[in-house]
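Possible regression after last week's pipeline update?

I re-ran a chain I had predicted before the update to compare outputs. Posting the input and the new output here so someone can diff against the archived version. Not blocking, just want to make sure nothing changed silently.
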Amino acid sequence: MIEIVEGELERCLAIRREVFMGEQNVTEAEEMDGRDGAPTVQVLAVVDGVDCGCARILYDAAARVHLGRVAVRRPFRGQGIGMDLVNGARDVALRHFAVDGTLTITLDAQEYAIGFYERAGYTLTERERFLDAGIWHREMAQTITR
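New output (post-update):
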């Protein structure tokens, strides 16, 4: 059973270092962008007491947030934890940032993960593909109402 925990920046940073810096060769300067303080909300996925994934919700504007730094540690991939994490982050974002029960969430998906985010209800925006940390990305979004 997955547990979604808010906060826990240091535990989330450990996962981000492992996945983004260790596996994807993202530099520390690119990964540690100074945007982890309030009103940002860190989301940690824990399974059987083990930290297995994380995400970051950045406040963008009224009823609008950006989901990013979504990472699942290698031993936990392919088990549905990523989808549980993204859905849990959506629920956390709704609680914190929805206006009149509505919230738009944007994210920058690495191109290989577009299908994953489509299954989570996101659609591609009109923005052209772009490089971030040397990795091709596409912007995706969804508007949700509780």
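Follow-up from reviewer: compared with the archived run. The chain is about 30% helix and 40% strand. Marking as no regression found.
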